[in-house]
Specification:
By secondary structure, this protein is mainly alpha-helical. It contains 3 helices and no strands. The chain has a domain of 35 residues. The protein is elongated and about 40 Å long.
């Protein structure tokens, strides 16, 4: 069973994503680490991406 189906069955029907800034240049200074969170378009569109 996929994670999306499991979370939906448990009652989860939305995800909240906090966006510190919508200025992509400022965003680069806030997220210096590794992974998807540091990629501005990925984070900006995160609510439209289903859970893995």
């Amino acid at each position: 069973m996929s994670t999306l189906i499991c979370t939906s069955a448990a009652g989860m029907d939305y995800v909240t994503v906090f966006q510190e800034t919508y200025d992509d240049q400022k965003y680069k200074t806030l997220h210096l680490g590794f992974g998807h969170k540091r990629i501005f378009p990925y984070r900006l569109n995160a609510q439209g991406v289903p859970l893995p």
